[in-house]
Design brief:
It is built from eleven helices and 13 strands. It has helices spanning about 20-25, 70-80, 100-115, 125-135, 145-150, 175-185, 195-210, 210-230, 240-250, 260-270, 295-305; strands at about 1-15, 30-45, 50-55, 60, 85-90, 155-160, 165-170, 185-190, 275-280, 285-290, 310, 315, 320-325. The strands form two sheets. Strands 1, 2, 3, 4, 5, 6, 7, 12 and 13 form a nine-stranded mixed beta sheet that branches. The model has no long low-confidence stretch (mean pLDDT about 90).
Length: about 325
């Protein structure tokens, strides 16, 4: 049996500029981190060597990849000549919560299948192939940040060049700055899930048809670069201001990014002492991230969100990996 693991990501700034409709014209950039919450996949030889058995939220037992209903499994198995296996998936966080779950799943699956086939490929290759599956094969209106973040892990700055290449640069800070970042970021689950593809489809259309939306994304990219400079100077507190500005810009990108309930929860966090925040992912639901600089303010924010599940914010630096091989 082999088990792979890939981390969920939290995007701080620049989200949306990783979509081809934007970066092919202007170039894009995102600053994000992965956290210690993961998708896990296991593979094991099946009893019947001609079958493929898949276990996720449902169970599929098929004889060919052509019969697989799960879209990502289908496309991944189409690329590999594998049968006679049983694969099961588990995750620390449910889908539709803004942490890049589908891309994290795709990255973990590719890492698993290449290992099962005794093939070594680079981390960049896995991230790139995950993008090909989701964007090209499945036609999802998404960008590249989730796949690269999950594959590489850690706190990093990603540049999406017009020629399609992704440049990856780690953010280097003092150890106490990483700890400060962990301590001051609070995440709460709104209880609302969202259809990311629906929101991103509208955003993609808006980018392609509106110069104002392009200008908004250019401002979001500039914020990401500014945050990178502040982090490298160990000015972690700038994150609060960056999140506040970025969230105001993000809400301009599509009509469903936010709504009354989300706005109400966001304001509740700000009034309790957060200096900035944002809804993670495409919008519409999922997790709210706040930057809260003092212990007194943290106590106040947690009290305000006592009826909402808090997800511990711990930085991951492992990326996609094999964690068990028997």
């Amino acid at each position: 049996m082999i088990m792979s693991r890939a981390p969920f990501r939290v995007s701080f700034a620049g989200g949306g500029s990783d979509m081809p409709s934007f970066y092919e014209k202007h170039g894009g950039c995102v600053l994000s981190t992965t956290i210690k919450k993961y998708v896990y996949l296991t593979i094991h030889p099946a009893f019947n060597r001609d079958d493929i058995s898949l276990k996720y939220s449902k169970t599929e037992n098929v004889h060919s990849y052509k019969e697989i209903e799960h879209r990502i499994f289908h496309e991944a198995f189409r690329r590999f000549n594998i049968s006679g296996v049983e694969i099961a998936s588990m995750a620390d966080v449910t889908a539709g919560t803004g942490l890049g779950s589908s891309s994290t799943f795709t990255v973990a699956l590719l890492k698993l299948l290449y290992t099962y086939e005794h093939q070594y490929v680079s981390t960049y290759h896995i991230a790139k192939e995950a993008c090909e599956i989701e964007i090209n094969d499945l036609g999802n209106p998404i960008g590249k940040q989730d796949q690269f973040a999950s594959a590489f892990g850690g706190l990093k700055f990603y540049e999406f060049l017009p020629n399609g290449y992704v440049k990856i640069e780690p953010i280097v800070m003092k150890p106490e700055s990483y700890k400060k970042l962990e301590n001051n970021c609070l995440m709460f689950y709104t209880g609302l899930t969202h259809d990311a593809n629906k929101i991103l489809s509208e955003q993609k259309k808006n980018i392609e048809t509106s110069d104002k939306k392009e200008e908004t994304l250019l401002k979001m990219c500039e914020l990401a670069r500014e945050l990178k400079e502040h982090f490298q100077k160990n000015d972690v507190d700038f994150l609060g201001e960056c999140l506040a500005k970025g969230w105001a810009l993000k809400k301009q990108m599509a009509s469903q990014v936010s709504h009354g309930k989300i706005d109400e929860l966001y304001e509740m966090g700000i009034k309790a002492g957060a200096t900035g925040g944002k809804l993670l992912g495409a919008g519409g639901g999922g997790f709210l991230l706040f930057y809260v600089p003092t212990d007194k303010a943290k106590e106040s924010v947690r009290k305000a969100f006592k009826d909402y599940k808090e997800l511990p914010f711990e930085l991951d630096n492992s990326g996609a990996s094999i964690i068990y091989c028997d």
